[in-house]
Amino acid sequence: MTTSPCASDALPGGTVDTPVQEVVNNEDGTLGGLRLTDGQVVARRVIAVATWMEARIEGLGGLKLPVEDLPDNMGRRFASGMAGTTEVPGVWVAGNATDLAAQVGASAAAGALAGAHINSMLATADTNAALAATQGETPAL
């Protein structure tokens, strides 16, 4: 879900909920205000923009990974547990697919943690299979 940016006016007179068409500069190149889609220009010296963040999910629809909305309509991410685990067996997520504000370092660390968790699970499965084989049992999957 994306929304159009609107101008918020904290001065007496309330809030302007009309979508913004463009930023308007003064003749000297400094910020002059915002032109709204109805043609009105709202004078501003400062503009703060909140972005909508969303994990890129193209090509992953078939996995049916659960997504969740962030508080305050900030965006949507893949839902995950510790070390990037998901509700889908065998699928982990990491980095800014699940932590949308993560930068490169944090994303790499999350990927390393997910990889360590995957490695641990595979090593445990191999060990269980080897133990079952020595006892003449069929390993549980």
- Look at the helices and sheets and give the structural class: alpha+beta
What's the alpha carbon Rg, rounded to whole Å? 25 Å
What's the SSE pattern? EEEEEEH
Q: Per the principal axes of the C-alpha atoms, what is the gross shape?
A: elongated
Number of helices: 1
CATH superfamily of the largest domain: FAD/NAD(P)-binding domain
In total, the number of strands is 6
CATH fold name of the largest domain, please? FAD/NAD(P)-binding domain
- Give the count of structural domains: 2
Give the N-to-C terminal Cα separation.
40 Å
Region (Disordered): 1-20
Organism: Kibdelosporangium banguiense
Protein name: Thioredoxin reductase
InterPro entries: FAD/NAD-bd_sf
Please, could you describe this protein's structure?
- It comes from Kibdelosporangium banguiense.
- Residues 1-20 are annotated as: Disordered.
- This is Thioredoxin reductase.
- The protein has 141 residues and is an alpha+beta fold.
- It has two domains: 1-49, no CATH class; 53-134, 3-Layer(bba) Sandwich (FAD/NAD(P)-binding domain).
- It is built from one helix and six strands.
- The protein has a three-stranded antiparallel sheet, with no helix packed on it. A three-stranded mixed sheet has the order 4-6-5, with no helix packed on it.
- Strand 2 (31-36) and strand 3 (41-43) form a beta hairpin.
- It is elongated, with a radius of gyration of 25 Å.
- The model has no long low-confidence stretch (mean pLDDT 86).
